[in-house]
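Bumping my old thread because nobody answered last time. Still need a sequence for this structure:
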């Protein structure tokens, strides 16, 4: 007899979306979180963009779950009053050589099932965004922004209403496979140890998802890839209405230093991409302001150096090392009843409700 039917490790947007999707009063579901509250990991250090699904290779989980997640997120945000806005997004070409990259992205997005894409001219750009300088662009009408915290609160409330339990300040330190269930060993912040058994384990531990997966004999390795942001101040509210991204090379490490805004219309630039050692260092170097200014002022000519300030950062849990090609999300039942979600980097938040449905189907 096991103590829990299902244990979800990690209360970020992925673990919470899964809990919301699968919780039922007749199941005992425990969400274990090492921090004192939910959503303090990767999920609170991102751009809060509802991505369209343009960049990822056709047939990948990143592409398909992003496209489905985009649709579900708008529906559930509207229905449940989660603050969000369908801003739209322009991927801008500043040099003629970049035109073919726009076309490549257009075709890739279409192949992924993104319906609302349009290649637009310099004239159309200046009609839409008179303060943006570019000679061609790819317009994605279905890109937007959402409050990640409201979204996570919604998922958690739905899970708790369906009788799931969340346990904070409880770190999973060891897992052993026993007959028909898993033995989970935890440590709390007072250094107290506790163990229990669970029929099913769902590993949604973000930056530690490889460590958790490897406790039962897998061999995953995440690379930490930091993304710094700079805030933008001293410019007119509404000077730009849409999210503005540069064209990026094919390698899928990041999306280039871009301009996004939050729901209070505060602008920010970033994130960039820097592979780092395996430590959660969120410091943003002061020289980033100059670097970000130089890249963004190519398409935002109104920007002045003094508008840009070092701000926050986040860390991507990447399966793709610095010299590797594209790596997809891993969502896999590696051992019977043990589902690992590893490498859930962007577009993980957008994809979260679709990932949750995908995991529910794996449980049947
Ligand atoms: C810079 C940046 C920008 C991004 N921008 C976007 C974007 O605009 N749009 C988008 O869709 N996606 C974006 N993403 C991706 C998105 O944020 C992630 O895919 C998503 O937040 C991952 O959620 P998670 O639940 O897997 O991880 P987390 O939010 O990190 O949750 C994992 C949880 O597990 C807990 N945990 C870890 N180890 C243990 C343990 N041993 N025991 C118990 N608990 C444990 C952690 O404390 C944490 O709370 C971005 C990511 C980054 C880094």
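Sorry it took so long. Here it is:
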């Amino acid at each position: 007899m096991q103590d829990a039917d299902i244990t979800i490790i990690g209360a970020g947007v992925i673990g919470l979306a899964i809990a919301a999707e699968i919780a039922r009063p007749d199941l005992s579901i425990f969400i274990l979180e090492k921090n004192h509250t939910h959503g303090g990991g990767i999920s609170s250090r991102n751009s809060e963009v509802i991505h369209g699904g343009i960049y990822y290779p056709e047939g990948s989980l990143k592409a398909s779950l992003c496209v489905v997640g985009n649709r579900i997120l708008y529906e559930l945000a509207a229905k449940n009053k989660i603050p969000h806005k369908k801003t739209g997004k322009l991927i801008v070409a500043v040099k003629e050589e970049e035109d073919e990259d726009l076309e490549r992205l257009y075709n890739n997005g279409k192949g992924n099932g993104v319906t609302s894409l349009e290649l637009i001219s310099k004239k159309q750009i200046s009609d839409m965004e008179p303060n943006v300088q570019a000679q061609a662009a790819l317009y994605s009408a279905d890109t937007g922004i959402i409050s990640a915290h409201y979204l996570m609160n919604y998922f958690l409330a739905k899970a708790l209403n369906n009788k799931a339990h969340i346990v904070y300040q409880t770190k999973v330190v060891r897992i052993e496979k026993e007959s028909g269930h898993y033995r989970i060993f935890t440590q709390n912040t007072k250094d107290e140890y506790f163990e229990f058994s669970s029929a099913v384990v769902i590993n949604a531990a973000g930056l530690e998802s490889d460590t958790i997966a490897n406790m039962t004999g897998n061999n995953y390795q995440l690379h930490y890839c930091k993304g710094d942001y700079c805030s933008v101040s001293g410019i007119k509210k509404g000077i730009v209405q849409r999210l503005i991204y540069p064209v990026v090379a094919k390698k899928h490490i990041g999306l280039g230093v871009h301009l996004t805004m939050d729901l209070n219309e505060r602008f920010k630039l970033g994130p960039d991409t820097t592979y780092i050692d395996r430590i959660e260092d969120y410091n943003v170097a002061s020289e980033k302001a100059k670097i970000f200014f130089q890249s963004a002022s190519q398409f935002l000519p109104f920007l002045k150096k003094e508008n840009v300030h070092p701000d926050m950062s986040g860390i991507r849990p990447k399966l793709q090392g610095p010299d590797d090609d594209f790596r997809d999300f891993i969502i896999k039942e590696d051992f019977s009843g043990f589902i690992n979600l590893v490498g859930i980097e962007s577009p993980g938040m957008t994809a979260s409700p679709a990932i949750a449905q995908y995991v529910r189907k794996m449980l049947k």
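The chain has a mean pLDDT of 96. Let me know if any region looks off to you.
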